[in-house]
Design brief:
By secondary structure, this protein is an alpha/beta fold. Helix content is 24%, strand content 28%. The strands form two sheets. The protein has an eight-stranded mixed sheet with strand order 6-7-8-5-9-10-11-12. β9 and β10 form a beta hairpin. The longest helix has 15 residues. The protein is elongated and about 65 Å long. Bound molecules: NADPH dihydro-nicotinamide-adenine-dinucleotide phosphate and the ligand O=C1OC[C@@H](O)[C@H](O)[C@H]1O. The site of the ligand O=C1OC[C@@H](O)[C@H](O)[C@H]1O has 3 residues, from loops.
Length: 286
């Protein structure tokens, strides 16, 4: 399930790189002539066996299929995108996504009217390093070098902002620190709740406020003094109205370290797991 693909104009800017990395998540593609469709897919940077190509004139009937959720359209016309949007599908459009101003406005108006974003209710991001894994001499502990847990594992903040498509937080609701044993000005751990405005990235007004908790710890105690908490590799949980999405180890998705993206459907209780290892992506793109 893709809960939110982003605004139409941002998708266009992302272009090929999004196509390359997101292709496996796409369900259908549209081609002007069914006969030429395989050739079109073959020219893609990373042809995916998961993409089914349909004659674009069939978009309305194809989009009636409930399991299809995203339509990738690489034509400079909005009419097919509008049909897909009318069926409640997300659309991924190549530039220019419309032939003229009026058509562009129709696409945007249709998207705003039909796309139902799964509203984000809250997020929780965590990243910890086991006690003794960072020696006392490390720059991460030095106040003059901007040391401290939140400064070092800032991924908890960047992932939160990514999930919420948000700019800087509106306010700090609470913040609890555990000072470093070597310098109390440096946070060894930080546990904070921030309020963000969803959609406020790059100066946008945004839509609604969301509470986000983050926990960063550079000297996390082992369980029973022995077991490092490997499950606290950088992880973010994003709770939406319909799902709980967990991205485990999103910064270092290597096979050795393991990672996953879990999507739990709140209605059915079912959880779907997927992995996107860097090595696999690299191999596929060579
Ligand atoms: N983007 C990413 O994925 C990652 C980013 N990082 C970031 O990279 C940075 C370096 O981390 P890491 O390589 O592990 O650290 P290292 O301890 O290996 O390197 C630290 C560097 O800082 C220099 N240094 C030490 N003291 C001072 C000082 N007082 N003034 C100026 N320079 C100093 C050292 O130089 P000298 O040898 O001369 O003492 C050394 O080159 C950190 O800021 C970290 O947050 C780290 C890991 C991953
Ligand atoms: O950037 C980083 O990524 C890996 C962490 O273990 C490290 O402390 C941090 O600097």
């Amino acid at each position: 399930m893709i809960t939110k693909l982003g605004r139409v104009h941002e998708i266009n800017i992302l272009g090929k790189s999004l196509f390359r990395h997101e292709l496996n998540k796409l369900d259908i593609a549209l081609a002007r002539h069914r006969a030429t469709a395989p050739a079109l897919v073959a020219t893609a940077t990373c042809p995916s066996p998961h993409v089914t190509v349909f004659d674009v004139e069939r978009v309305a009937s194809v989009c009636s299929r409930p399991r299809l959720n995203v339509v990738y359209c690489w034509y400079k016309h909005g009419k097919w995108a509008i049909k897909a949007l009318e069926k409640g599908k997300h659309v991924l459009l190549e530039k220019a996504f419309a032939a003229n101003d009026a058509e562009a406005r129709r696409v945007i108006e249709t998207a705003q009217r039909t796309l139902q974003h799964d509203k984000v209710l809250q997020t929780h991001a965590i990243m910890t390093s086991p006690v003794c894994s960072i020696p006392a001499s490390d720059i991460r502990w030095q106040f003059d070098l901007a040391g401290g847990a939140l400064m070092d594992v800032t991924y908890v903040l960047s992932s939160t902002r990514f999930a919420l498509d948000a700019g800087a937080p509106l306010c700090v609701k609470s913040a609890h620190t555990r000072p470093s044993p070597w310098d109390e000005r440096v946070d060894e751990a930080m546990d904070t709740t921030l309020v963000y405005r969803e959609g406020s990235a790059e100066g946008a007004e945004g839509e609604y406020n969301v509470e986000a908790t983050v926990y960063a710890d550079m000297r996390r105690a082992n369980v029973a003094g022995l077991v490092p908490r490997v499950w606290e590799l950088p992880t973010i949980e994003v709770e939406t109205e319909r799902a709980l999405v967990t991205l485990y180890n999103f910064t270092m998705p290597h096979r050795v370290l393991y990672h996953y993206i879990a999507t739990k459907d709140k209605a059915t209780g079912e959880t779907r797991y997927e992995t996107h290892y860097l090595e696999v992506l690299r191999e596929e793109h060579q």
